[in-house]
Amino acid sequence: MITMLLQIVQHTPTWVWGLLAALIVLGLWQARDREISLARITVLPLVMLALSFSGVVSVFAHATIAILAWAIGVAAAVGLGRHWVQARGATWSSTTGLLRVPGSWLPLVLIVALFLVKYVAGVALAKNHALIGSPLFGAACGLAYGTFSGLFAARALGLRRLVAARAATSSLAA
């Protein structure tokens, strides 16, 4: 078992480890308090959604079930996950136009989890190319990709709702 894992790691392209390092840095950056604009809140979730969708389509383009599972994962994560991933303690400043978001380890966990799902799926496909035609494997991958990237979207939508609520409160007070 250890020998097999060692072979997998040794045969992984170097750029994959560089990507993992960059993703970890991105996740660590999310763990500190920061002020960010509405545009920056939106970028990471859109990138994660695009990458996860392209991951499903590039491997399982012929499998409608994988794409449908991805969409279900996104919808479920956005609908149900917004309470789990909300940025508690975030505040909006209408004077600076920035959100003050407390640091959280959750984005790092989600980023690494999505990376691991994609890595394990890639290894599984490399070892058994026939899995591309497996509806169950495609659906599992699609659901996992959609769920993790959907949680990023849920967090961003929660922050946007906070801004909208603060803006509405400010306009009523004026």
Task: Furnish the topology, listing elements before pairings.
Blueprint: H1 2-10, H2 14-30, E1 34-36, H3 38-60, H4 64-81, E2 91-93, E3 98-101, H5 106-127, H6 135-173
Helix pairs in contact: 2-5, 3-4, 3-6, 4-6, 5-6
Please compute the radius of gyration using only Cα atoms: 19 Å
Q: In this structure, how is the largest beta sheet organized? A: 3 strands, antiparallel
In total, the number of strands is 3
pLDDT below 50 for ≥5 consecutive residues: which ranges? none
Helical residue percent?
A: over 70%
Annotation keywords:
single chain, 174 residues, mainly alpha, globular
Question: Summed up, what is this model?
Answer:
The protein is mainly α. Helix content is 74%, strand content 6%.
Could you walk me through the main structural features you see in this protein, from its secondary elements to its overall organization?
There is one protein chain. The chain has 174 residues and is mainly alpha-helical. The protein has one domain. The chain contains 6 helices and 3 strands; from the N terminus they run ααβααββαα. Strands 1-3-2 form a 3-stranded antiparallel beta sheet. α2 packs antiparallel against α5 (106-127), α3 (38-60) packs antiparallel against α4 (64-81) and α3 runs antiparallel to α6. The mean pLDDT is 88.
